[in-house]
Amino acid sequence: MVFLRCEAVRWVDDEPQPGLVEVRFTDAHHRQWTFTDKWPVFSGDDDLAPDSRYPVEVGILCDILTTGNTADTVKISVTPWGLESLEGHVEFEVRANQLTTS
Fold first, then answer.
1. CA 18, CA 92: separation in Å to the nearest integer?
2. Confidence (pTM)
3. I need a labelling partner for 26 at 20 to 30 A (CA). Which of 16, 58, 59, 83 fits?
4. In this structure, what is the dihedral angle of CA atoms 41, 46, 52, 53, given to the nearest 10 degrees?
């Protein structure tokens, strides 16, 4: 499994259960993308909570679609968990070092 490294930046709301967090990352073109979803969707070392110390490094499960325009970039999709950015995007070009398998 491949994960896109991101940061949970804040607790959004307690409802719906188990609670929502806001997660962000910056793509290979320096554009920032934001997601809001239930905290278990974003893999991390610890459970997230309203009183967690943000930002917290988390990951988004993703599929690799293609290598990018350079050896350093990769086109990914965040659809395995049904995610999309607040702008409605599901595919992104990211730097290869933003991906991890753990």
1. 27
2. 0.89
3. 16
4. -110
